[in-house]
Amino acid sequence: MLLSLDVKGKTIVLGVTGGIAAYWAAEIIGALRDREADVHVIMTKNATHFISPLTLQTISENKVLTNSFELSGEIEISHISYAKKADLILVAPATANFIGKIATGIADDVLSTTIMAVNAPVLICPAMNDMMWANKIVQENVEKLKKHGYYFVDPEYGVMACGGMGVGRLASMESILGKLMAL
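and the corresponding structure tokens:
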């Protein structure tokens, strides 16, 4: 049951990538904050087309990172400081593109560089069209990441943005939080 989940006092870095399921990030932040987690958000550039950084900053009560090269006047290097403070990184939603980047070691934005620098567990929650999820290359990338110690909550069956039915939609909040607490 969700109420028994204990993330109190934990620092969760939520990575949000550019898919239609990005709007669920607000719900995820709310659920984690309700359980007294300290949530810090990193968004890819494409994620900002689906939900605004201001929305997620307001809900998380922390600055949202969107660019590795922002000049903020701070001395700390954002991706390293987030990697050090994270008890866990949760990427929800994770696009096929982002999964492929991580699987091949591409670190060209603040989220991917943070993941490359972190020692904490990384939980990836894919969300994409069912045909993309079934693609052999995507599945190979997922398996490669699992071999390297990354955790996954697989997408679920249901109505997708294209109007069709299939396996590809973001997993339920219960599934995501349940797996997060098992780590």
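(Above: one complete record from the training split.) The mean pLDDT is 92.
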